[in-house]
Amino acid sequence: MTDLMDLLDSAAGRPVAPTSQTVDGDLRRGRRAQLRRRLAQGSAVVVTGAAVTVGAAVLSGGGTGPQRVGPAVGTVKTTPPTSSAAPNGKTSPTSTPTPGPGTLVPADAERNDRAFSAALVPFAWQRQQSDTVLAFEPPGIDTTVNDFQDKLVVMLAAGVTPPSDARQFQFGGGNARSWTEGDTSIYYLVLADGRTAVVLQVPPALGWDDMTVAGFAKGIAVGPSAQAGVG
Amino acid sequence: MSAGRDGEFAAFVHARRAALVRLATLLAAGDGHLAEDLVQTALTRLYVAWWRVEKDQGPEAYARRILVNTLVDERRRPWRRSETSRADLPEQPSDVVDVENADAVRRALAELGPRMRAAVVLRHWLGYDVGECAQLLGCSEGTVKSQTARGLDRLRGLLSDDLTTTTTSGSAP
What we know:
The complex is a heterodimer of chains A (231) and B (173). Chain A has helices at 4-11, 20-50, 210-218, and strands at 2-3, 67-68, 104-106, 116-118, 120-122, 126-129, 133-137, 152-156, 167-171, 174-181, 184-190, 197-202, 220-222.
C-alpha cells in the first residue's frame, strides 16, 4: 500500500529555512508594494475629484521642458561640499573638511540630463534614476532602482490625497502636506505650475526636517520624459 | 510601514516560509521557479494586508489562499498553459521504483489541472476538510469532492493502483 500523504510529503521536498537575505527580500517587496498601493489609492481619489474640481493637482508628464519645484516660503540653509554638517543632514556650527552622509550638496551637472534632476543631493548617497523615479540609497546599500526601502525617493504622482491628519506646511507659495508611514516621512508637494505633483519618501536615516526637505525639493526638476511610477 | 508589522512579518517569514515553499512546490507540480514566484507573490500581498489578515483569518491561511489563487490565475493564461506541457509524462502507471521517486509524483501532479491539483493537495496533504477546501477554492463542496475523486483516480493511474489516502485533519506540515 502506498499512502498519498507520504508521496506528497516526499514530492514537496525537504524544508529549507530561509536565509536572512531571503527574509529581507520579502520585506523589501512588501514595503515597496505597500508604498505603491498607497500612491495608487491616492491617485484614484484625485482622479475622481478632478471631475468636479477644476485645477486640482494632477500629474503632468508632458510639457516643453523641465518644471522646477517652487521655492519654499522659508529659507533652507544648504551645505556646500566643503562645509561641515551633522550625519543626519542638518548643518553644524563646527567646520570639518567633509560633509556628513546625507548632507545636501550640489549635484553633478552631468547627472541631471534625465527625466528627473536635482540641484542638491544628499552627500554620499548613491543616486539611481529611471523615467519613473529618482532615488538615493544610503551608503553601503546596493539594490535596484525600483527597490524603495530606506531610500530617499522622488516620484511623480497623478495626485495623492494625503491622510486627513497630514501636517500642512508652506512650500512654493502653496500648502504642502506631510505624513508618516511607520518611521518614514512622505511629502506631497506641488510644482510651481500648480499642476504637477511630486511625492517624496524621506527615510529616517536622513534626519531631515521640513526645511531641509523643502531645500531638496526646491532643486527638483521634472523633464518631459518623466512618467508616473504608480501602480 | 511600522516596525511592529515589519518585525511580526519577518518572524512569520522565518518560521513559515519553508512550509509555504513546500506547499507551492506541490501546487506548481515541482516547478521550482513558479513555486518561488507564488511564495513571493503571496508574501508581498500578505505584508500589505498584514493588520487586516492578522485579525481575520491569520497570516498562514491567507498566504495559502493567495498561493492557490495565484496559481489558478497564472494557469488561466494561454502562455502559461503552453509552457507547462511536458514531453516526459508517464503514459502508463509507473512501477514501484518510480512511485518512490519524488519526481515521479511531481510529474503525476502536473497531469492534473491546477484546481484539481490544489484540491488534492489541500485535502490529502494539508488535511483540509471538504468545506475548508471549497471556501479556499471558491467553489461548492460538491465540486471539491468530484475534483478530489477524479484527481485521485488520475494519480492512481499514473502512480500506483493501491494508492491510499488518510485525510487527517490538522496534519498540515
